[in-house]
From TrEMBL:
Residues 1-25 form the signal peptide. Its main location: Golgi. It is a multi-pass membrane protein. One of its GO terms (biological process) is GPI anchor biosynthetic process. It comes from Hibiscus trionum (Flower of an hour). Involved in the lipid remodeling steps of GPI-anchor maturation. It is found in: Golgi apparatus membrane. The chain crosses the membrane at residues 125-149, 161-181, 201-219, 226-245, 251-271, 283-299, 311-329. This is Post-GPI attachment to proteins factor 3. Keywords: Golgi apparatus, GPI-anchor biosynthesis, Membrane, Signal, Transmembrane, Transmembrane helix. It comes from the Eukaryota. One of its GO terms (molecular function) is hydrolase activity, acting on ester bonds. The keyword Calcium does not apply. Belongs to the PGAP3 family.
Length: 345
C-alpha cells in the first residue's frame, strides 16, 4: 500500500515535468511597469505610501538613517522577508490590481502565481492542506499502532504478527516529516526550505519504493530485506547529498523521483491484479483518485482570490488519499495476522 505513498509523489513530479515550461514563462517580472516599481522600491524602500523598515538597513544589518533600536525585532525575523522580497511582493500586488481594473488576467512573477500573504505565509491554502495531511498521517499511524497492539492477537513475546510493522512505523515518520516541511516550504519558499522539502520527498518516495518491493514480493527474511534495501538507501542518500551540497537540480530530482514512483506503480499494479487480498479495491481506488489529482497539477490555473490554485487543490486531494492509504495498511495488518494464525492451527 505504500504504492499509495509512491503514487502521490509520482503524480506530483510527473505533473511538475509538465509545468516546467510555465515556470520559465514569467511574464509578470518582465513587465516594464513592475520592473520600474521594483527599481524605485529598492531605492526608496516604499511602494506607493507603504514603506518597509528593513529597506533602511545595509547588507551588514546596520541602520542607514535610523537608530539601531528601530531594527525589526528578533521574534519577527523568522519570516526572513528582506527588502527585495517585500518590494517584489508589494510591486506585484500593485501591478495585479492595475491588471484587474483593466480586465487583465493574473500572470506569474518569478515563476510563481501572485498569492496573497496571510501573516507572512506565502501560500496559506497549500500550508493548511499540508497541515491537514500531516494530521491525517499522524492519525493513521496512531490507529495502526492501536490496532496492532490492542486489538489484534500478539505473539508470545508480545510483538505483532504483522511482518511489516517496523517498516510502516518508519514510513509514518518519513511521511509526517515530508508534510511538515511541505507546509514550511509553502510558508516561506527560500533555498533552505526547498532543499529540506525536496530531500524529505526523496527520502519518503525512496523508502516507499523499498517497502513496495518488500510487501509486494512478500520478502520476510532479514538478509533478503537488507540486500534489497541497501543499494536503494545508498542511492537515495547520495542523491540527497547531491541536492544539498552540490547542486539543487530540480530536473534531475524530478527524474529520480518519477523513476522510483513509476516502478512502484508498475509493481503494485501487477500485485493488485494477481492477489486475492480482500482490500485490493482500495489500491485501485487510490489510483483513480491519484490520476484525477494529477489533472489539477497539469491544468495549473491562477489562484482564486489570490489563495486557491491548482497546486493547492492537489494538496487538498491528498487528504482523502492519505486516509485511504492508512485504511489499506490496517486492512493489510488484519489480513496478514489472520492468515498467519490460520497457518499455525
Amino acid at each position: 500500500m505504500n504504492k499509495m505513498a509512491g503514487c502521490r509523489f509520482i503524480l506530483l513530479y510527473f505533473a511538475t515535468c509538465f509545468l516546467v515550461p510555465s515556470i520559465d514563462a514569467t511574464e509578470g517580472d518582465a513587465d516594464p511597469i513592475y520592473m520600474a516599481c521594483l527599481e524605485q522600491c529598492e531605492k526608496s524602500g516604499c511602494v506607493g505610501e507603504k514603506c518597509f523598515q528593513h529597506c533602511k538597513f545595509s547588507s551588514d544589518g546596520k541602520p542607514i538613517d535610523e537608530p539601531w533600536y528601530l531594527q525589526e525585532p528578533l521574534y519577527q525575523k523568522w519570516k526572513q522577508w528582506d527588502c527585495l522580497s517585500d518590494c517584489r511582493y508589494h510591486c506585484m500586488v500593485a501591478r495585479e490590481d492595475e491588471r484587474r481594473k483593466l480586465g487583465g488576467k493574473p500572470v506569474k512573477y518569478h515563476g510563481k502565481w501572485p498569492f496573497q500573504r496571510v501573516y507572512a505565509i506565502q501560500e496559506p491554502a497549500a500550508v493548511a492542506f499540508s497541515a491537514i495531511s500531516l494530521a491525517l498521517q499522524f492519525h493513521g499511524w496512531i490507529t495502526f499502532f492501536i490496532l496492532l497492539n490492542y486489538k489484534l492477537p500478539l505473539r508470545p513475546d508480545k510483538k505483532p504478527y504483522y511482518e511489516y510493522t517496523g517498516l510502516w512505523h518508519i514510513y509514518a515518520i518519513l511521511a509526517m516529516n515530508f508534510w511538515f516541511w511541505s507546509a514550511v516550504c509553502h510558508s516561506r519558499d527560500v533555498e533552505l526550505t526547498e532543499k529540506v522539502d525536496y530531500s524529505s520527498a526523496v527520502a519518503l518516495i525512496g523508502f516507499s519504493f523499498i517497502l513496495t518491493i518488500l510487501r509486494a514480493f512478500n520478502v520476510r527474511d532479514e538478509a533478503s530485506r537488507v540486500m534489497v534495501a541497501a543499494p536503494l538507501i545508498a542511492f537515495v542518500t547520495t542523491h540527497i547529498l547531491y541536492l544539498n551540497f552540490y547542486k539543487l537540480d530540480f530536473g534531475l530530482n524530478m527524474i529520480v523521483c518519477l523513476s522510483m514512483g513509476v516502478a512502484q506503480l508498475l509493481i503494485w499494479g501487477v500485485w493488485a491484479g494477481v492477489t486475492s487480498h480482500p482490500s485490493r479495491w482500495k489500491v485501485w481506488l487510490f489510483n483513480v483518485g491519484g490520476v484525477l489529482s494529477l489533472v489539477l497539477e497539469i491544468y495549473d490555473f491562477p489562484p482564486y482570490k489570490g489563495f486557491l490554485d491548482a497546486h493547492a487543490l492537489w494538496h487538498a486531494a491528498n487528504i482523502p488519499l492519505a486516509y485511504l492509504c492508512w485504511s489499506f495498511v490496517r486492512d493489510d495488518a488484519e489480513f496478514r495476522t489472520l492468515t498467519l494464525l490460520n497457518k499455525m492451527k
